[in-house]
Amino acid sequence: MATGVKEAKLNEREDGFKYWKAGERQGMINLDEKSFSAEELKTALKHFKLTQDDVGQPDVGFSEKHGMSEAGTSLRSHDDMMQGLSQSNLHMVTGTDIVGKLMTAYGTTESRAERKDILVDLEYHVHQIDVAYDFVKMGGLTLISNALNDTDSELRGAAAFVLGSALQSNPNVQEAVLRAGLMRPLLEHLVAPGNAMERSRMLYALSCLIRTFPEAQERFLEQGGIQVLVSLFRSVDLQKLQVKSVSLVSDLLAERQEIAEDGKLLQRRVDLGKVLQQQGWCELVQRLLHAPDHDTRERVLQALNLLYANICPLQNTQELLEQLRFLENEYEDLAQEEKGSDSYFLQLEHVTKDLIAKITESYNRVDL
Questions:
Q1: How far apart are CA 56 and CA 92, in angstroms?
Q2: What pLDDT, in 10s, does the model give residues 118-128?
Q3: CA distances for 295 relative to 268, 269, 292, angstroms
Protein backbone atom coordinates (compact mmCIF):
# COMPACT_ATOMS: atom_id res chain seq x y z
CA MET A 1 0.00 0.00 0.00
CA ALA A 2 1.31 3.46 -0.87
CA THR A 3 2.07 5.46 2.26
CA GLY A 4 4.18 8.37 1.04
CA VAL A 5 6.64 7.55 3.84
CA LYS A 6 10.35 7.42 3.04
CA GLU A 7 11.33 3.75 3.28
CA ALA A 8 14.59 1.83 3.56
CA LYS A 9 15.70 -1.68 2.68
CA LEU A 10 18.22 -3.71 4.69
CA ASN A 11 20.28 -6.32 2.89
CA GLU A 12 22.43 -8.75 4.92
CA ARG A 13 25.69 -10.12 3.51
CA GLU A 14 27.89 -12.98 4.57
CA ASP A 15 30.72 -10.66 5.64
CA GLY A 16 29.00 -9.69 8.91
CA PHE A 17 27.55 -6.41 7.75
CA LYS A 18 24.12 -5.15 6.82
CA TYR A 19 23.74 -2.65 4.02
CA TRP A 20 20.82 -0.24 3.97
CA LYS A 21 19.39 2.10 1.41
CA ALA A 22 16.84 4.89 1.94
CA GLY A 23 16.16 6.89 -1.21
CA GLU A 24 19.49 8.30 -2.34
CA ARG A 25 21.16 7.50 1.01
CA GLN A 26 22.94 4.25 1.74
CA GLY A 27 25.23 2.85 4.41
CA MET A 28 26.44 -0.19 6.31
CA ILE A 29 26.11 -1.61 9.85
CA ASN A 30 28.43 -3.92 11.79
CA LEU A 31 26.25 -6.75 13.13
CA ASP A 32 28.89 -8.35 15.34
CA GLU A 33 30.43 -5.42 17.21
CA LYS A 34 29.78 -1.75 17.94
CA SER A 35 32.80 -0.62 15.95
CA PHE A 36 35.00 -1.60 13.01
CA SER A 37 38.64 -2.65 12.90
CA ALA A 38 40.86 -1.18 10.21
CA GLU A 39 40.78 -4.44 8.25
CA GLU A 40 36.99 -4.71 8.58
CA LEU A 41 36.62 -1.22 7.22
CA LYS A 42 38.76 -2.01 4.20
CA THR A 43 36.79 -5.20 3.52
CA ALA A 44 33.36 -3.69 4.05
CA LEU A 45 34.00 -0.53 2.06
CA LYS A 46 34.76 -2.62 -1.02
CA HIS A 47 31.08 -3.56 -1.09
CA PHE A 48 29.69 -0.19 -0.07
CA LYS A 49 28.49 0.99 -3.48
CA LEU A 50 25.25 -0.89 -3.89
CA THR A 51 23.10 -1.25 -6.94
CA GLN A 52 19.39 -1.98 -7.09
CA ASP A 53 20.26 -5.63 -7.65
CA ASP A 54 22.45 -5.63 -4.50
CA VAL A 55 19.60 -4.57 -2.27
CA GLY A 56 17.12 -6.82 -4.03
CA GLN A 57 14.73 -3.95 -4.53
CA PRO A 58 11.31 -5.16 -5.65
CA ASP A 59 9.47 -3.72 -8.58
CA VAL A 60 7.97 -0.39 -7.78
CA GLY A 61 4.72 0.77 -9.28
CA PHE A 62 3.49 4.31 -9.66
CA SER A 63 0.01 5.70 -9.29
CA GLU A 64 -0.63 8.69 -11.52
CA LYS A 65 -3.77 9.41 -9.56
CA HIS A 66 -2.05 9.70 -6.18
CA GLY A 67 1.49 10.52 -7.35
CA MET A 68 2.89 8.04 -4.84
CA SER A 69 5.21 4.98 -5.09
CA GLU A 70 4.10 1.48 -4.21
CA ALA A 71 6.71 -0.92 -2.80
CA GLY A 72 6.74 -4.52 -1.61
CA THR A 73 5.78 -5.37 1.93
CA SER A 74 9.40 -6.22 2.78
CA LEU A 75 10.19 -2.53 3.06
CA ARG A 76 10.09 -0.78 6.42
CA SER A 77 9.68 2.92 7.06
CA HIS A 78 12.90 4.82 7.60
CA ASP A 79 11.83 5.86 11.13
CA ASP A 80 10.95 2.28 12.06
CA MET A 81 14.26 1.04 10.77
CA MET A 82 16.24 3.66 12.71
CA GLN A 83 14.29 2.88 15.88
CA GLY A 84 15.00 -0.81 15.43
CA LEU A 85 18.68 -0.17 14.97
CA SER A 86 18.76 1.94 18.12
CA GLN A 87 17.03 -0.79 20.11
CA SER A 88 19.46 -3.39 18.76
CA ASN A 89 22.35 -1.22 19.97
CA LEU A 90 23.99 -1.38 16.53
CA HIS A 91 26.50 1.22 15.42
CA MET A 92 26.72 3.06 12.09
CA VAL A 93 30.27 3.98 11.16
CA THR A 94 31.04 7.70 10.76
CA GLY A 95 33.99 9.67 9.51
CA THR A 96 34.91 10.47 13.11
CA ASP A 97 34.86 6.74 13.96
CA ILE A 98 37.26 6.02 11.13
CA VAL A 99 39.57 8.88 12.16
CA GLY A 100 39.60 7.57 15.74
CA LYS A 101 40.58 4.10 14.51
CA LEU A 102 43.32 5.55 12.33
CA MET A 103 44.72 7.61 15.20
CA THR A 104 44.81 4.52 17.40
CA ALA A 105 46.57 2.55 14.66
CA TYR A 106 49.08 5.38 14.23
CA GLY A 107 49.92 5.31 17.93
CA THR A 108 50.38 1.54 18.07
CA THR A 109 52.81 1.17 15.18
CA GLU A 110 56.46 2.17 15.04
CA SER A 111 56.69 1.60 11.30
CA ARG A 112 57.19 4.88 9.43
CA ALA A 113 55.81 3.30 6.26
CA GLU A 114 52.58 2.36 8.04
CA ARG A 115 52.36 5.79 9.65
CA LYS A 116 52.67 7.47 6.26
CA ASP A 117 49.85 5.30 4.92
CA ILE A 118 47.69 6.21 7.92
CA LEU A 119 48.37 9.91 7.37
CA VAL A 120 47.24 9.53 3.76
CA ASP A 121 43.94 8.04 4.99
CA LEU A 122 43.56 10.76 7.62
CA GLU A 123 44.04 13.49 5.04
CA TYR A 124 41.13 12.09 3.05
CA HIS A 125 38.73 12.22 6.00
CA VAL A 126 39.66 15.58 7.58
CA HIS A 127 38.40 17.45 4.52
CA GLN A 128 35.00 17.22 6.25
CA ILE A 129 34.69 20.23 8.55
CA ASP A 130 33.04 18.41 11.47
CA VAL A 131 35.41 15.46 11.24
CA ALA A 132 38.43 17.80 11.17
CA TYR A 133 37.31 19.49 14.39
CA ASP A 134 36.65 16.11 16.01
CA PHE A 135 40.18 15.13 14.98
CA VAL A 136 41.48 18.16 16.89
CA LYS A 137 39.35 17.38 19.97
CA MET A 138 40.63 13.78 19.98
CA GLY A 139 44.23 14.99 20.26
CA GLY A 140 45.06 15.10 16.59
CA LEU A 141 47.27 18.18 16.89
CA THR A 142 49.60 16.30 19.24
CA LEU A 143 49.92 13.59 16.62
CA ILE A 144 50.66 16.19 13.95
CA SER A 145 53.13 18.09 16.14
CA ASN A 146 55.11 14.92 16.84
CA ALA A 147 55.10 14.00 13.16
CA LEU A 148 56.33 17.48 12.17
CA ASN A 149 59.31 16.94 14.50
CA ASP A 150 60.17 13.54 13.01
CA THR A 151 63.48 13.09 11.21
CA ASP A 152 61.73 11.55 8.17
CA SER A 153 61.07 14.22 5.53
CA GLU A 154 58.23 12.29 3.88
CA LEU A 155 56.48 11.77 7.21
CA ARG A 156 56.76 15.49 8.01
CA GLY A 157 55.33 16.34 4.61
CA ALA A 158 52.44 13.93 5.04
CA ALA A 159 51.64 15.44 8.44
CA ALA A 160 51.64 18.96 7.00
CA PHE A 161 49.28 17.79 4.26
CA VAL A 162 46.83 16.42 6.84
CA LEU A 163 47.07 19.66 8.80
CA GLY A 164 46.42 21.82 5.75
CA SER A 165 43.35 19.83 4.75
CA ALA A 166 41.96 20.02 8.28
CA LEU A 167 42.56 23.80 8.35
CA GLN A 168 41.00 24.63 5.00
CA SER A 169 37.96 26.91 5.49
CA ASN A 170 37.65 25.71 9.09
CA PRO A 171 37.83 28.59 11.62
CA ASN A 172 37.60 26.32 14.69
CA VAL A 173 40.61 24.31 13.56
CA GLN A 174 42.49 27.49 12.58
CA GLU A 175 42.11 28.88 16.10
CA ALA A 176 43.14 25.57 17.70
CA VAL A 177 46.25 25.25 15.52
CA LEU A 178 47.29 28.83 16.24
CA ARG A 179 46.89 28.25 20.00
CA ALA A 180 48.89 25.02 19.72
CA GLY A 181 51.84 26.95 18.31
CA LEU A 182 52.14 24.95 15.10
CA MET A 183 52.94 27.97 12.93
CA ARG A 184 56.56 27.98 14.10
CA PRO A 185 57.48 24.44 12.91
CA LEU A 186 55.76 25.09 9.57
CA LEU A 187 57.91 28.19 9.02
CA GLU A 188 61.06 26.42 10.17
CA HIS A 189 60.61 23.48 7.81
CA LEU A 190 59.66 25.79 4.94
CA VAL A 191 62.88 27.79 5.22
CA ALA A 192 65.13 24.79 5.95
CA PRO A 193 66.78 22.91 3.06
CA GLY A 194 64.65 19.93 2.13
CA ASN A 195 62.84 18.27 -0.72
CA ALA A 196 60.41 20.39 -2.71
CA MET A 197 57.39 18.21 -1.87
CA GLU A 198 57.84 18.61 1.88
CA ARG A 199 58.30 22.38 1.59
CA SER A 200 55.28 22.64 -0.71
CA ARG A 201 53.10 20.92 1.88
CA MET A 202 54.44 23.16 4.65
CA LEU A 203 53.44 26.17 2.57
CA TYR A 204 50.03 24.60 1.91
CA ALA A 205 49.37 24.17 5.63
CA LEU A 206 50.65 27.65 6.39
CA SER A 207 48.44 29.19 3.71
CA CYS A 208 45.35 27.38 5.03
CA LEU A 209 46.16 28.58 8.53
CA ILE A 210 46.45 32.31 7.79
CA ARG A 211 43.95 32.89 4.97
CA THR A 212 40.84 34.75 6.22
CA PHE A 213 42.30 34.68 9.75
CA PRO A 214 43.63 38.17 10.68
CA GLU A 215 45.17 37.15 14.01
CA ALA A 216 47.13 34.35 12.38
CA GLN A 217 48.29 36.80 9.71
CA GLU A 218 49.67 39.11 12.40
CA ARG A 219 51.52 36.20 14.01
CA PHE A 220 52.84 35.20 10.58
CA LEU A 221 54.29 38.68 10.05
CA GLU A 222 55.67 38.90 13.59
CA GLN A 223 57.42 35.56 13.24
CA GLY A 224 59.17 36.58 10.02
CA GLY A 225 56.83 34.91 7.56
CA ILE A 226 57.60 37.30 4.70
CA GLN A 227 61.33 36.77 5.22
CA VAL A 228 60.74 33.02 4.97
CA LEU A 229 58.89 33.45 1.67
CA VAL A 230 61.67 35.69 0.37
CA SER A 231 64.20 32.92 1.13
CA LEU A 232 62.42 30.68 -1.39
CA PHE A 233 63.58 32.96 -4.20
CA ARG A 234 67.23 32.09 -3.56
CA SER A 235 66.90 28.84 -5.48
CA VAL A 236 66.04 28.59 -9.17
CA ASP A 237 64.62 25.11 -8.53
CA LEU A 238 61.72 26.39 -6.42
CA GLN A 239 59.74 28.37 -8.97
CA LYS A 240 56.46 26.60 -8.17
CA LEU A 241 56.87 27.49 -4.50
CA GLN A 242 57.75 31.05 -5.45
CA VAL A 243 54.56 31.40 -7.49
CA LYS A 244 52.49 29.96 -4.62
CA SER A 245 54.14 32.47 -2.29
CA VAL A 246 53.22 35.31 -4.63
CA SER A 247 49.59 34.13 -4.68
CA LEU A 248 49.52 33.90 -0.87
CA VAL A 249 50.84 37.44 -0.38
CA SER A 250 48.41 38.74 -3.01
CA ASP A 251 45.53 37.12 -1.11
CA LEU A 252 46.67 38.77 2.13
CA LEU A 253 46.85 42.18 0.42
CA ALA A 254 43.41 41.69 -1.13
CA GLU A 255 41.89 40.66 2.21
CA ARG A 256 43.29 43.73 3.94
CA GLN A 257 42.14 45.97 1.15
CA GLU A 258 38.63 44.52 1.33
CA ILE A 259 38.49 45.03 5.10
CA ALA A 260 39.58 48.66 4.68
CA GLU A 261 36.98 49.29 1.97
CA ASP A 262 34.26 47.85 4.22
CA GLY A 263 35.22 50.36 6.89
CA LYS A 264 36.04 47.65 9.43
CA LEU A 265 38.60 48.40 12.13
CA LEU A 266 41.47 45.92 12.27
CA GLN A 267 44.25 46.22 14.78
CA ARG A 268 47.44 45.71 12.82
CA ARG A 269 50.63 45.29 14.75
CA VAL A 270 52.74 44.95 11.60
CA ASP A 271 52.50 46.97 8.37
CA LEU A 272 52.48 44.34 5.58
CA GLY A 273 53.21 46.88 2.84
CA LYS A 274 56.23 48.26 4.67
CA VAL A 275 57.64 44.77 5.27
CA LEU A 276 57.23 43.93 1.56
CA GLN A 277 59.08 47.11 0.60
CA GLN A 278 61.91 46.37 3.03
CA GLN A 279 62.30 42.82 1.74
CA GLY A 280 62.39 43.85 -1.94
CA TRP A 281 59.28 41.81 -2.68
CA CYS A 282 58.34 43.77 -5.81
CA GLU A 283 61.65 43.04 -7.53
CA LEU A 284 61.41 39.35 -6.69
CA VAL A 285 57.90 39.09 -8.13
CA GLN A 286 58.93 40.88 -11.34
CA ARG A 287 61.55 38.21 -12.05
CA LEU A 288 58.79 35.64 -12.52
CA LEU A 289 57.50 37.52 -15.58
CA HIS A 290 60.29 35.73 -17.47
CA ALA A 291 58.54 32.40 -16.84
CA PRO A 292 57.55 30.68 -20.10
CA ASP A 293 54.10 29.50 -18.99
CA HIS A 294 51.13 31.83 -19.19
CA ASP A 295 49.58 30.70 -15.90
CA THR A 296 52.60 31.92 -13.94
CA ARG A 297 52.64 35.19 -15.87
CA GLU A 298 48.94 35.69 -15.14
CA ARG A 299 49.45 35.31 -11.39
CA VAL A 300 52.45 37.63 -11.47
CA LEU A 301 50.59 40.29 -13.46
CA GLN A 302 47.68 40.17 -11.01
CA ALA A 303 50.09 40.43 -8.08
CA LEU A 304 51.91 43.41 -9.60
CA ASN A 305 48.59 45.17 -10.16
CA LEU A 306 48.00 44.95 -6.41
CA LEU A 307 51.57 45.85 -5.47
CA TYR A 308 51.81 48.91 -7.72
CA ALA A 309 48.63 50.35 -6.24
CA ASN A 310 50.59 51.79 -3.29
CA ILE A 311 53.46 49.50 -2.28
CA CYS A 312 56.07 49.11 -5.01
CA PRO A 313 58.52 52.02 -5.53
CA LEU A 314 58.25 53.74 -8.90
CA GLN A 315 61.99 54.25 -9.34
CA ASN A 316 63.75 52.16 -11.96
CA THR A 317 60.54 50.92 -13.59
CA GLN A 318 61.75 51.49 -17.15
CA GLU A 319 62.96 47.92 -17.59
CA LEU A 320 59.69 46.59 -16.19
CA LEU A 321 57.64 48.77 -18.57
CA GLU A 322 59.65 47.51 -21.55
CA GLN A 323 58.99 43.92 -20.52
CA LEU A 324 55.29 44.63 -20.03
CA ARG A 325 54.99 46.21 -23.49
CA PHE A 326 56.65 43.13 -24.97
CA LEU A 327 54.06 40.92 -23.21
CA GLU A 328 51.27 43.24 -24.34
CA ASN A 329 52.26 42.77 -28.00
CA GLU A 330 52.63 39.01 -27.53
CA TYR A 331 49.17 38.65 -26.00
CA GLU A 332 47.61 40.93 -28.58
CA ASP A 333 48.89 38.64 -31.35
CA LEU A 334 47.76 35.50 -29.50
CA ALA A 335 44.32 37.00 -28.84
CA GLN A 336 43.84 37.74 -32.54
CA GLU A 337 44.68 34.12 -33.35
CA GLU A 338 42.34 32.80 -30.65
CA LYS A 339 39.54 35.31 -31.39
CA GLY A 340 36.42 35.78 -29.28
CA SER A 341 35.58 38.27 -26.53
CA ASP A 342 36.21 35.62 -23.84
CA SER A 343 39.69 34.83 -25.15
CA TYR A 344 42.16 33.89 -22.41
CA PHE A 345 44.93 35.83 -24.12
CA LEU A 346 42.67 38.85 -24.58
CA GLN A 347 42.17 38.89 -20.81
CA LEU A 348 45.92 38.70 -20.26
CA GLU A 349 46.39 41.55 -22.72
CA HIS A 350 43.93 43.70 -20.72
CA VAL A 351 45.63 42.87 -17.40
CA THR A 352 48.99 43.84 -18.90
CA LYS A 353 47.62 47.11 -20.31
CA ASP A 354 46.06 47.97 -16.94
CA LEU A 355 49.38 47.47 -15.19
CA ILE A 356 51.24 49.60 -17.74
CA ALA A 357 48.66 52.37 -17.33
CA LYS A 358 48.84 52.17 -13.52
CA ILE A 359 52.63 52.44 -13.41
CA THR A 360 52.77 55.21 -16.04
CA GLU A 361 50.02 57.25 -14.36
CA SER A 362 51.62 56.95 -10.92
CA TYR A 363 55.05 57.80 -12.31
CA ASN A 364 53.75 60.90 -14.07
CA ARG A 365 51.87 62.00 -10.94
CA VAL A 366 55.04 61.73 -8.84
CA ASP A 367 57.10 63.46 -11.54
CA LEU A 368 54.73 66.45 -11.48
A1: 21
A2: 999 999 999 99
A3: 32, 34, 9
How many other β-carbons are positioned within 10 Å of the β-carbon of residue 58? 14
At 9 the three-state DSSP class reads strand
| Cα 76 from Cα 5, distance rounded (Å) | 9
Residues paired with 63 in a beta bridge: 68
Amino acid, single-letter form, for residue 26: Q
Q: How far apart are CA 290 and CA 135, in angstroms?
A: 43
**What pLDDT digit, counting tens, does each position of 315-359 carry?**
778 899 999 999 999 999 999 988 777 789 999 999 999 999 999
Instruction: Name the residue type at position 253.
Output: L
Nearest to 348 by CA among 282, 287, 284, 295: 295
Looking at this protein, which amino acid is placed at residue 174? Q
pTM: 0.74
Pairing mode, strands 76-77 and 25-30: unpaired
How far, CA to CA in Å, does 49 sit from each of 21, 24, 119, 178? 10, 12, 24, 39
Distances 8 to 16, 22, 80, 326 between C-alpha atoms, Å: 19, 4, 9, 65
H helices of the chain, in order, are 38-45, 78-87, 95-108, 112-125, 129-137, 140-148, 153-167, 171-179, 183-191, 196-210, 214-222, 225-231, 239-261, 272-278, 281-287, 294-310, 318-338, 344-367
